Amino acid sequence: MKVRSGRSNKKLSRAQEDIQQQIKDKKIKISQKLKRIIDTVLDKKCENIVVIDLRKFNHIADFFVICESGSSTQTEAVVYEFKKLSKSLKSMNIRNIEFRANAGWNVVDFGDIILHIFDRESRRFYDLEGLWIDAKKFYVEPDGSIRLQEV
């Protein structure tokens, strides 16, 4: 039977602290990235912005950001802005972009956050908010304030 010394307990405690710090750092990075994404789509005049929190579902991303664009030109401007940000900010690294000028649904994948840019008709048709009915949703007002979905 092995007996653990006080020294190994300190290492375990240190390891736990490191893990907690990594979790805390990731939350900070996610919240900064999420804020930057929201600010950018607001700046580009996208509307009806919703953030869906997927963390409790352990899915492919922590958050979906869903917004509406009034035209393909506006969508292209949003995608172009994120390409520029990705080149200048390491934290805004883009994994993939699914963009076609006349598509009703375009996607920018940041890994932990996926931005969905819809036209109005496609958004109603695909209804991602309805698909994730059990997820917590936050609505972003045009002034940037955020309100939690009332259940």
Annotated CATH homologous superfamily: Beta Polymerase, domain 2
Q: For the residues shown, what is the average pLDDT?
A: 79
> What is the CA–CA distance across the termini?
54 Å
- The SSE order reads HEEHEEEHHEE
CATH architecture: 2-Layer Sandwich
SSE arrangement:
Elements: H1 6-43, E1 47-53, E2 63-68, H2 72-88, E3 96-98, E4 105-109, E5 113-118, H3 120-126, H4 128-131, E6 136-140, E7 146-148
Parallel strand pairs: 2-5
Antiparallel strand pairs: 1-2, 1-6, 3-4, 4-5, 6-7
What do you see in this structure?
The chain is of the alpha+beta class and 151 residues long. The protein has a single domain (6-148), classed as Beta Polymerase, domain 2. 44% of the residues lie in helices and 23% in strands. The protein contains four helices and seven strands. The chain has a seven-stranded mixed sheet with strand order 3-4-5-2-1-6-7. The N and C termini lie far apart (54 Å).
Short description:
The protein is an alpha+beta fold.
Keywords summarizing the entry:
23% strand; Beta Polymerase, domain 2; alpha+beta; single chain; 7-stranded mixed β-sheet; 151 residues; 7 strands
